[in-house]
Amino acid sequence: MVLDKLKLIEASTLETNFRMTDKPQGEGSLEVTFGKLNFESGGNISGEEGRSAIVISAEPKVVGVDKLDGKEAFSLSIKLKMIYSYPSEEKVDEATIRECSWYFSSFTKTYFKIFADQIFQQAGITGIALPLN
What we know:
With 133 residues, this protein is of the alpha+beta class. Helices cover 22% and strands 46% of the residues.
């Protein structure tokens, strides 16, 4: 599969869990986990004749730990779903997905950062620099 034939159709959140024990102040550390990517491929895309889909889901999480007492200050997990389309004549199997997993992982991290930054901003949490990729 040639990655330039992929077209991102959707990047969305299915579920968001945010918990803040106290308004974080000062310094601390972040524990970011992206977990496992789940893939589904095949089928036709409605309205896009000749294109099939790859659906990627993941549940990345970030935990903020207060430097002074070592306790959790906040946690955020987001169930993400991304849908890509590709030409139906392209062969997409497990080996292809494995070979391109770096690409999907990169976009998962990027969208997690975008969604998480919005939540942190609304919660009044500043100064957090999640990795973009």
